[in-house]
Amino acid sequence: MNVIEINRLTKMYGKSRGITDVSFSVEEGEIFGFIGPNGAGKSTTIRLLLSLIYPTSGSATIFGKDVVKFAPEIKKEIGYLPSEVFYYDNMKVIDLLKYSASFYKKDCTKRITELAEVMELDLTKKIDDLSLGNKKKVGIVQGLLHEPKLIILDEPTSGLDPLMQQRFFDLLEKENQKGATILFSSHILSEVQRLCDRVAIIKDGAIVQVEKISELKQNNYKKFKIETVLPLSGDYFEMPGVNQLEVKGTTTSFIFRGDINTVMQKVSTVEIANLWVEEPDLEEIFMHFYQREE
Ligand SMILES: Nc1ncnc2c1ncn2[C@@H]1O[C@H](COP(=O)(O)OP(=O)(O)OP(=O)(O)O)[C@@H](O)[C@H]1O
């Protein structure tokens, strides 16, 4: 079953583009990554899902229900962490969290204490006195305190130190094991590689690719670095499947996707000093998606 289904969602901010024709779905129980550079349209998509803004065209459903028509009902089952958190600074952390919990028909007191302990958040402090990272933790606890079936996180780790990021990821994995579906946006690719089952890649407001992390990595991408005895012309390895071609003196490097024999045939016609063929990391594979249309 799909927990989220997005169907040709478009959002224009006046004349400027938010997102265009975005479609993808997130299955129940998945940890789904939403990846793209700044301004690509991640927050816009997420805000549309939460009905904080409304689409210009297209539609989306969560738990099979239209996100605009059933917004209040759906929101009770969602934990949302916005990319930027704003609070009434004068409140104490515990008061804010109790206030948030009052919107749900369950006692969240124990859960708040547990989450605060894991995230090392001092509940007695005034929000005003918290650092940016600690404010982020308040948002995390706020998003998870009602044990939502769907967790939507917009750039959740910005501001958290590496130890807290780790704690937070462990927390998300636990929630996922208990049955929560998770959608989270990021421009940090290594996060996605570790945590997610599938990813959607967004660029300039449009989805470039939706793929399983395991398939992305097994997609026969190879990273070539070739050192030749004599310098090659800049376009010697320009051929279908070659990306990010770089020639520096006698060293040529590129990412290749396709039948490796075609590269090897070209390699065999020049005198080689050294050759490396490696698995590219996800960052390098994503660069390919980012650059494809340029
Ligand atoms: N309220 C707004 N008014 C006008 N344009 C907007 C508004 N919000 C977003 N945009 C534009 O929509 C596009 C997508 O922005 P969005 O914030 O969704 O991207 P993002 O992928 O979340 O990036 P970031 O990681 O920087 O938040 C950008 O070009 C942005 O300038």
From TrEMBL:
One of its GO terms (molecular function) is ATP binding. InterPro entries: AAA+_ATPase (IPR003593), ABC_transporter-like_ATP-bd (IPR003439), ABC_transporter-like_CS (IPR017871), ABC_transporter_ATP-binding (IPR050763), P-loop_NTPase (IPR027417). This is ABC-2 type transport system ATP-binding protein. Pfam families: ABC_tran (PF00005). The keyword ATP-binding applies. CDD domains: ABC_DR_subfamily_A (cd03230). The keyword Disulfide bond does not apply. Gene3D superfamilies: P-loop containing nucleotide triphosphate hydrolases. Belongs to the ABC transporter superfamily. Residues 4-229 form the ABC transporter domain.
